[in-house]
């Protein structure tokens, strides 16, 4: 039988002594121990030492509270992520991607709110759009067309988010009883029938797994493609051959 999620009960507050910031802060504290999926208004009330009606006064339902948590988490995440710089676009975009991934992997609550839940309030979405606009603008300054800059940043973002979500879902599955292993763990590799797979996996490579090696390889492919586009755009156009018109017979 699954263990029932409980919250540590605090000394009860006086009526009217709590505000939205206290509730959001307490929700993050509680989510650290029970997770976003198990976060509930009654549990949060016990954690904060208030009646659940005090929470409903500010947040009418759980989704409203999660939206407010997402607003705060997204603002903190955007400010903590380094921006892309046109003069050194490849290194800064690569660092942007790696730190974005590291931030999400290091904070499961952030991952669940922004990536898995994927329900941003208009205010949170506006903050995110401003950051993306700046990154794309810097890539355009670096030499990409607006369309190629958009596609490059979008591909990088999908690569990061996909890598993080796969890792997060794998971690969640591992925490369940009788959970199967991931794709690489359940593969049966026979050196006789799959010699190439046997050779590569012996070198610590894993197929279909959201690890650092697979992430870095995919990121390098995206950056390499963007670099080729910039080189092609900046290459001088081939000179057109000029031909001397032929004289008509009998003319000098």
Automatic annotation (TrEMBL):
Q: What Gene Ontology terms describe what this protein does at the molecular function level?
A: DNA-binding transcription factor activity; transcription cis-regulatory region binding
Which GO terms of type biological process are on file?
A: negative regulation of DNA-templated transcription
Q: Which Pfam families does this UniProt record tie to the protein?
A: TetR_C_1 (PF02909), TetR_N (PF00440)
DNA-binding region as annotated in the record? 40-59
Q: Which domain of life is it from?
A: Bacteria
Q: Which residues form the HTH tetR-type domain?
A: 17-77
- Report biased composition (Basic residues) as residue ranges: 238-252
InterPro entries found in the cross-reference section: DNA-bd_HTH_TetR-type_CS, Homeodomain-like_sf, HTH-type_TetR-like_transc_reg, HTH_TetR, Repressor_TetR_C, Tet_transcr_reg_TetR-rel_C_sf
Q: What is this protein called?
A: TetR/AcrR family transcriptional regulator
Native organism = Mycolicibacterium hodleri
Q: What is the lineage of its organism?
A: Bacteria, Bacillati, Actinomycetota, Actinomycetes, Mycobacteriales
């Amino acid at each position: 039988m699954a263990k029932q999620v409980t919250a540590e009960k605090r000394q009860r507050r006086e009526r009217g002594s709590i505000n939205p910031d206290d509730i959001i802060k307490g929700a993050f504290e509680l989510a650290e121990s029970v997770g976003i999926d198990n976060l509930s208004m009654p549990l949060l009330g016990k954690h904060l030492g208030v009646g659940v009606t005090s929470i409903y006064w500010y947040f009418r339902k759980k989704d409203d509270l999660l939206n407010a948590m997402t607003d705060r988490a997204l603002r903190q995440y955007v400010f903590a992520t380094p921006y892309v710089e046109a003069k050194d676009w490849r290194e800064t975009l690569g660092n942007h991607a790696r730190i974005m991934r590291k931030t999400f992997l290091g904070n499961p609550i952030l991952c669940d709110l922004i990536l898995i839940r994927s329900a941003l309030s208009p205010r949170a979405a506006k903050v995110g759009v401003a950051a993306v606009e700046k990154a794309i603008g810097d890539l355009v300054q670096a030499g990409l067309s607006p369309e190629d800059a958009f596609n490059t940043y979008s591909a990088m973002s999908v690569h990061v988010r996909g890598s993080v979500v796969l890792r997060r879902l794998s971690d969640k599955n591992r925490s369940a009883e009788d959970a199967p292993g991931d794709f690489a763990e359940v593969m049966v590799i026979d050196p006789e029938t799959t010699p190439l797979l046997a050779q590569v996996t012996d070198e610590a490579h894993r197929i279909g797994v959201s690890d650092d090696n697979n992430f870095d390889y995919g990121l390098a492919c995206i950056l390499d493609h963007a670099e080729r586009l910039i080189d092609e755009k900046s290459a001088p156009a081939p000179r057109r051959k000029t031909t001397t018109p032929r004289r008509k017979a009998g003319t000098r």
